[in-house]
Description:
Layout: H1 5-9, H2 14-43, H3 54-90, H4 98-116, H5 135-138, H6 143-170, H7 183-215, H8 228-262, H9 269-283, H10 299-311, H11 313-327, H12 336-359, H13 361-367, H14 372-401, H15 407-433, H16 450-480
Amino acid sequence: MAFSLKEWVFTTDHKRIGVLYLIGALAAFAVAGIMAMLMRIELHSPGPDLTSNPNDYNVWLYFHGAAMILGFQIPALLGYLANYCVPLMIGARDVAFPRLNAFSVWLFFGGIVMALLTFVVPDPPDIMWTGYPPYSIKTAGNTAFYTFTVLLIGFSSILGGINFLTTVVYLRAPGLGWNQLNIFVWSIVAAFVIQLIFVPVLGVAVTMLSLDKYLGTHFFNPANGGDVLIYQNLFWFYSHPAVYVILLPFIGITFDIIATFARNRVFNYKAAVYGGIGGVLLLSGEVWVHHLYTAGMPDWLRLGQMVSTLLISVPVGLLMISLLGTLYRGSISFRTPNLYALAVNFTFLIGGLTGIPLAMAPLDLNLSDTYFIPGHFHYVMAVSGTFAIFGAIYYLFPKMTGRMYSEVLGWTGFILTFIGINLVFFPMMIAGLYGMPRRYFDYEQFPQVAGLQLFMSLGSVVILLGAIVILWSWIHGLLKGAKAPDNPWGSKSLEWTTQSPPPPGNWVEVPKLSPDWGPYAYGK
């Protein structure tokens, strides 16, 4: 598509809107990565290094968490991938509400701009991405920036949910039944259902936070009848389901990549859809209290939440078994997108196995708020989700640009990042077992982890090198890559049946599908 600034700003084309989401998400990822590097430089040795002001570290920590989750992963999965892939995968010319779709992306950019103002206001937010009171109310940091950032991105997600659920229900190509949908489409449907149910709860929580701080209400002030645990319950009532808002789409796109590069059908398709995705959807709102084991609650409640937390591993396990089964006896091609998809299996397995002890209250009471927690959730969500997003960008690169990337650069970037993340996050869990608390600006009182902290900081440099190579591979492919055929991967999925890049309206004629058509019909 020829570049025209006016056309991109006022576009209602779902593909261009998807690319706009991708640009914003990658910008958020870059800034979040810089914040992570600042923290790792600060932590590479005991005592002050970059700054002697703990509030500076709190700002870095706030922006890293908020930008990675709210600015990168959720918009990349529910904005970029949903916009670019879903209409093409279901044979639609566009989404159901194109103008609403355009409005949602600009709300997202408004949230990004609001977040970036953190670096120019004299009182930047310093409350991490959780915003826990009473600190978020008493701090001199600008909590309102946090509230409005969350609300803007939240409204964007709600509009996206309405749009894509309507699109999948009503705009599927003639003959395309529910059991013929890509796993990714199913995962997007489930993720947006979760968003529509739980995002308003987060919006209420952060609004109450600002009302307490700026208008003198007392929702979270125990001295006036409030309770700080109200906020924690509301926050995690959304934020743990948000884990599955990220998990389901990244598992969904991983299914499509693995099926394509293994040239195999999805193993146990209906069990993955109805047992895996459906089971996660049903249980996602029942497990938030395990984030509050140390907040003070009766043992019977801890026991119930422990059981429900362990129970949700069953549908997730069904998804992983189906992923691995899809590889069985496949003709596997180790192209760059598939390297990332295979790495998702590895990193998610480590994250899942380390989550089992955290589900058990007696163990979690000792591990809570140690480095074990961020080590675990970086494996299960941050790294696995990011690998799936990067794999999807490589997978869709020929379709988006009409050009091929360099496999040498793709492999190099993958190897560096894969090594780097294991150098950083596995030692993090070991440091947690040694008792190192999370969110600490300094650790002179924990000399036993000094060597591990230096090791993790060196590992972060490897990740940075990998990220630079990955970015260069995309720029090089865009400028100098060979012309891509319409279906370079030999995929059976519907999005690869149109030209690369797809024209406005996606197809000259909307495809009509036979009852035996399927996106994973390899071998037929």
